[in-house]
Amino acid sequence: MNKISTILIVKNGENLIADCLDSVSFSDEIIVIDNGSIDRTAEIAKKMGARVYEITSKDFSELRKQGLKNALGDIIFYIDVDERVDNNLSKEFSHLKKMDINLIQDNYLVNRKNFYLGNHEWPKIEKMLRVFRRGKLKGWEGKLHESPIVVGEAGTLNGFLLHFTHKDLYSMLEKTIEWSKTEAELRFNSGHPKMVWWRFPRVMISAFLDSLVKQRGYKIGTVGIIESMYQAFSAFVTYARLWELQQKNNSKLKT
To answer: What is the pLDDT of residues 191-202, one digit of tens each?
Structure first.
């Protein structure tokens, strides 16, 4: 019987973590990386049988690596606190536990459905590389939008990972304020071209159209418009912060 290690990185998720952990009851071990929570997240996770490691960092690749470092299972699965495993995907994991380990794919993609502002399902379904055989996941790269470094081929599991994101306008704005600073710093450190006035409408319009048209947000009406406008606003805040960093740097160079 193969063992499954589920890894979760969370910060202040006391209202979400119980449902998340309930959905991964097929796991042989659950590892929670608590990224500086000041609520009851760690307490709830421990009561539900998870091993909790308190590690604070803005580098999400490092946090994911810490989870991997402490995992003992044959199969590694990463989930976020606002995600849930549906019944069909849960059955896939139960099946993987019973398979000959040599017949299991090196890595697996999972299909993810996103839900915005309540239970409004987003038209575009994402494919996320979240399941790995031990030894096939070599690490992670990227400070914020981290990506797995893997070897081997990837299959796709049936069922869905349900992602309940952007629950209300307050949490959406809070997320932008928190993460736009890191996003801006990453762009600044990579030597992003100088922010001039015409770059702002360009990035905002691109973000809006990507969300509304390319991802077919228009199909869900008002929620699609709100989400697409939010993406444009989020892009504006990030690049305005980048402009601010560039202005401060220019002032330093002149002195």
So the answer is: 999 999 999 999
